[in-house]
């Protein structure tokens, strides 16, 4: 039986595959005459995925707790949303590029019966080296002989090249042998093939993949943990794992001493309070998308163990203990950042887990993921922004003109970024509304 979370995962997987297919379609054929039905079909599938995910988010869940799999996925939500938002810049650029790159003159030559052959440069009229940061190219005006059916025709043409052109050098020419009035294009073979529907050159492909890899590293590097319980086993092997028995005394909201990486401002975070007989009070700070109210109803008074590993370097935060996983009785867990009201107190000798002690089995425990209207509303805001962004890009695929293409691509990017910010504000306002209860 499919759960609500598994259905959402399938919708989001379809969204990811559809966007990846859109990127691949542009790289395979960056210049195609509109309408681009291949791009439209990929974006339409992405829109269906977003609508499906939105409908499931709006449906009330029959369970108070989602199974959530073995991953504490909400901890990585901000990373995934950030990756999607900034990768959207790459997607919007590619769709706009596919709309702006087709040359009507090139396709007029194709319709008239095109040919692509080599010809020699008869004369170099002018050449200039154009430097661009660390690279450069030659921009030249040359005379070439184009072999039309009615006889060769010597004409002037503009060209760019990495080497300085000389008379007698061979260049490729795209022309319609029976229609000299349509003109011609010269250059290297790959660039001419791209003009009439060929694949993008390798530099363009690697640049696109490099931008996507950069977005991945900036948003997800260091955030991705395949399984927090498996991480405990790795720390145990290194002799850095600590554990204490605890009881949960409550869940609320408090200022986290760790500021966001982009500022020195401390932010409100959901905070789980625990009591340890050996170490006193401990606090576990969770991802800000977690709703403290339903979580408190589920785990207040629960017993379990908190496992943590100390950071490998000295942190500038007085109360930080380290990344931690709380495994509750009943094979459910919560993951977050462990802090203590007084981290200067020495840890008890029993806190370090001995090398021969048995740890909880990997793959058995499941993340505790209480259903939250606030989380659903924030995710719904992000999905609505994505849908509007998809619609804007879909319109571009029909060929709406250069100005409209630029405006729609910029609007698509801004819509997604603004949607992400609005979702963050929704969560922030909800946490602020819970502060009076934390007294």
From TrEMBL:
Signal peptide as annotated in the record: 1-20
Q: Identify the keywords attached in UniProt to this record, alphabetized.
A: Membrane, Signal, Transmembrane, Transmembrane helix
Residue ranges spanning the membrane: these are 35-57, 78-100, 202-221, 382-400
Q: What is this protein called?
A: DUF3592 domain-containing protein
Q: Which organism is it from?
A: Streptomyces djakartensis
């Amino acid at each position: 039986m499919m759960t609500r979370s598994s259905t959402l995962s399938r919708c989001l997987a379809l969204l990811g595959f559809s966007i990846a297919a859109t990127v691949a379609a542009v790289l395979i054929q960056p210049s195609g005459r509109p309408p681009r039905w291949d791009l439209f079909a990929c974006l339409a599938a992405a829109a269906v995925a977003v609508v499906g995910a939105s409908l499931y988010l709006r449906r009330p869940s029959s369970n108070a707790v989602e199974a959530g799999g073995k991953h504490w996925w909400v901890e990585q939500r901000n990373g995934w949303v950030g990756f999607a938002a900034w990768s959207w810049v790459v997607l919007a650029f590619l769709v706009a590029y596919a709309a702006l790159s087709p040359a009507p003159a090139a396709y007029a030559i194709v319709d008239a019966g095109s040919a692509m052959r080599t010809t020699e440069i008869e004369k170099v009229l002018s050449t200039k080296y154009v430097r661009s940061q660390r690279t450069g190219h030659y921009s030249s005006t040359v005379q070439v002989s184009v072999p039309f059916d009615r006889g060769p025709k010597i004409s002037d043409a503009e060209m760019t090249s990495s080497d300085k052109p000389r008379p007698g050098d061979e260049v490729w020419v795209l022309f319609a042998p029976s229609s000299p009035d349509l003109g011609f294009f010269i250059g290297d073979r790959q660039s001419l093939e791209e003009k009439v529907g060929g694949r993008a050159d390798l530099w363009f492909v690697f640049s696109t993949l490099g931008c996507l890899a950069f977005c991945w590293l900036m948003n997800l590097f260091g955030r991705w943990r395949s399984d927090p319980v498996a991480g405990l086993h790795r720390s145990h092997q290194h002799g850095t794992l600590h554990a204490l028995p605890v009881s949960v005394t409550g869940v609320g909201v408090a200022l986290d001493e760790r500021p966001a990486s982009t500022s020195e401002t401390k932010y409100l975070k959901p905070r789980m309070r625990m009591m340890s007989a050996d170490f006193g009070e401990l606090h576990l700070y969770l991802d800000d998308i977690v709703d403290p109210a339903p979580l408190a109803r589920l785990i207040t008074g629960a017993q379990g163990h908190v496992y943590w590993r100390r950071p490998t370097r000295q942190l500038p935060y007085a109360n930080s203990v380290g990344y931690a996983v709380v495994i509750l009785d009943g094979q459910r867990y919560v993951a977050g950042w462990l802090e203590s009201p007084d981290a200067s107190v020495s840890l008890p000798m029993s806190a370090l887990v001995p090398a021969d002690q048995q740890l909880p089995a990997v793959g058995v425990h499941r993340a505790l993921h209480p259903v939250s209207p606030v989380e659903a509303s924030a995710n719904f805001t992000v999905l609505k922004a994505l849908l509007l962004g998809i619609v804007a890009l879909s319109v571009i695929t029909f060929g709406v003109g250069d100005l409209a293409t630029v405006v729609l691509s910029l609007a698509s990017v801004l819509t997604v970024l603004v949607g992400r910010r609005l979702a963050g504000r929704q969560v922030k306002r909800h946490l602020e509304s819970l502060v009076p209860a934390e007294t």
